[in-house]
User: Fold these one by one.
Assistant:
Number 1:
Amino acid sequence: MLTGLPVAGFTGTLIDRYPKESPGTGVVRAKTGTLTGVNTLAGTVVDADGRLLLFAFMTTGTTDPRAAQSALDHMASTLANCGCR
């Protein structure tokens, strides 16, 4: 299943959501979800220590889907920068 998820900055629904300089580019693999007022991002990320982390983020009551997506992408990128030891 993991290999079928879109890769941030490279494939599927994440191809245009992560700029080349984003720490999440190439290391975030995730499934997006959007309904009126709800945005989600769930998947995996390899952190700065090389560990595979799983995450699931959701926003509700949003009026700006692009801003919500950007916030979710930023959260996943923050995990990529994490050195959690």
Number 2:
Amino acid sequence: MARKKSPTLTEGELRIMEALWRLGRGSVAEVSEAMPPPPVAYNTVLTTLRILEQKGHVAHEEAGRAYIYYPLIAREAAAQSAVKQVVSKFFGNNAGALALRLIENERPTDDELARLRSLIERYDEGK
């Protein structure tokens, strides 16, 4: 039985999307060259770009014999989708539980604490 396609990015897809977001657009070879080590085979990049296209994350246009790929989703949208999936899978759709877990595991910086305080004040005002 075929594996269900994930609406979020796998680790390999994310590496390729990171390169594509940096480039803005590029051929398979350009995307492959823009990726950080370890190197990924050309055919693997090509196959992954095709999968990303099927998922609606990238599109391509023809430039002579080459395809030039470009992202259809912003990095922020991909991150939001990944967070939604984590909240759904592990925290019973309770984003507050995830936020508490993150803060319990690692002390926020002073700037992050100030931002958290500001958000809490804004939520208290909206009661």
Number 3:
Amino acid sequence: MNKFTDEVRHRWGETAAYAEYAEKTKACSAAESDALAAGLDRIMGAFAACMQSGASPDSSCALTLVGELQGYITAHYYTCTDEILAGLGQMYALDERFRQNIDRHGEGTAQFICDAIGDFCETR
């Protein structure tokens, strides 16, 4: 995460979401930050398991996980609106760094999450 700090600050540093993120995480120790990252990684792994079970991105399994992801981000980082969530989904699939990291759980997981987020946001 630290290697992306400057990029994140440059892209989103003037937003309310970034200010909320900075406030929520300012007192986090390295161990706490690692635990939060592990929580996100667990959700990504659950998406992979859902996909590998043959579920589609609009399945109840996938949509439930999108809600869990949105709730996790909101609880621990910043208020993850549907608009922000949709942008994250696109970033997961289109940004090579995110896609490679997420696809560690299984090839195509990042695109599956992106598609599930799209379906989730369209139905709300």
Number 4:
Amino acid sequence: MRTTKIRAAAAALGLLALAGCGSSSDGSGTASGEGSGGEVANAVLATADSDLGEIVVDADGRTVYVFDKDTADSGQSACSGECLAKWPPVPAESDDPVVDGVTGEIGTITRDDGSRQVTLSGMPLYLYAGDSQAGDVTGQAVGGIWWVVAADGTKVSAAPTSEPAAVPGY
């Protein structure tokens, strides 16, 4: 009887070990990976399929945007004060953010408050407070100056499926 329990325990451990050998992707298609496979752990940016094509998203699957008032490679963000309440920066934990599926040049800038913000092709990246869930692209073309970003860092100029709300002052 003791031998049977030992064999059963060994078999259970073997199954647990095999279960741990699976893919690192959870297959959910959210956050860091729809469209990219989610192969890179801890990616700050990844790509995802959307109504606007393949776009850049943050680690939580939220759509990433660029701001026409920013200047590429300036090392600065033109979004401050009230702008940041609607358009928070994509934060960088290091000077060399990890990405998955993003092909444009990745970098960071240091904001006035000392925090780091991720850049793509020299442009600071933002999220939109009006996007209520992963995959939303409601910030597309807001004020005619906010744009979803493609994997290569170019802004997506496709028209949104519905007219975005006007944002005063932007």
